[in-house]
């Protein structure tokens, strides 16, 4: 299913194959020989999404851009089943395995691997040829790649990256943070009420 969102519609190269149950919404450009499989969602929420050539987006993966963080996925990238990429740049020949999460402002260097259920946190840069092991977390600047049982170290680096401030423009210490966050984000997402199906 293809939708026009905020006045922009998907542009899909004629050699790309998009499954009938995939959702492509807004300012999305899909390059030659891409494969977008069943249940994948590629949604431009105010920022553009570009996929180079030979990108594979597998079942139930999510790719989301924001007005602050567009998404660019370079050539020969595989986005695994149930993986999530939000507002990030993925360079060429990267493997994002099943269930990986890549957050806003992150950059994954060429030929890197983010293995099953691993996380690349917001504003984190992986140099080329980096591997994030299964279920580990890449976070911070300078980069740390930590196992999930080292929560205190992950949180120390993550706190400085300021997820609510960077993504939603809200101070983490706001007493009613979730009230403000859900109301503000809800108003933004409500813009989908005017989407128009184009296929």
TrEMBL record:
This protein's record includes keyword Cytoplasm: no
Record flagged with keyword Transferase: yes
Superkingdom per UniProt: Bacteria
Keyword tags: Transferase
Matches recorded under InterPro entries: Transf_Hexapept/Carb_Anhydrase, Trimer_LpxA-like_sf
SUPFAM superfamilies per record: Trimeric LpxA-like enzymes
Protein name: Carbonic anhydrase/acetyltransferase-like protein (Isoleucine patch superfamily)
Alphabetized GO MF terms: transferase activity
Protein species of origin: Microbacterium kyungheense
PANTHER family for this protein: DYNACTIN SUBUNIT P25, GAMMA CARBONIC ANHYDRASE-LIKE 1, MITOCHONDRIAL-RELATED
């Amino acid at each position: 299913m293809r939708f026009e969102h905020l006045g922009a519609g998907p542009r899909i190269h004629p050699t790309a194959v998009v499954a009938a149950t995939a959702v492509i919404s807004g300012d999305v450009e899909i390059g030659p020989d891409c494969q977008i499989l069943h249940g994948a969602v590629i949604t431009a929420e105010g920022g553009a999404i570009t996929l180079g050539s030979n990108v594979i987006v597998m079942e139930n993966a999510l790719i989301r851009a924001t007005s602050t963080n567009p998404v660019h996925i370079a050539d020969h990238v595989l986005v695994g089943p149930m993986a999530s990429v939000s507002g990030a740049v993925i360079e060429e020949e990267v493997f994002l395995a099943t269930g990986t999460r890549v957050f806003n402002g992150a950059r994954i260097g060429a030929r890197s691997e983010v293995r099953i259920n691993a996380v690349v946190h917001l504003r984190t840069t992986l140099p080329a040829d980096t591997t994030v092991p299964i279920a580990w977390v890449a976070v911070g600047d300078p980069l740390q790649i930590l196992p999930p049982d080292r929560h205190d170290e992950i949180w120390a680096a993550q706190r400085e990256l300021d997820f609510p401030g960077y993504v939603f423009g809200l101070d983490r210490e706001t007493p009613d943070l979730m009230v403000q966050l859900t109301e503000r984000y809800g108003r933004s997402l409500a813009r989908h009420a005017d989407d128009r199906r184009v296929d």
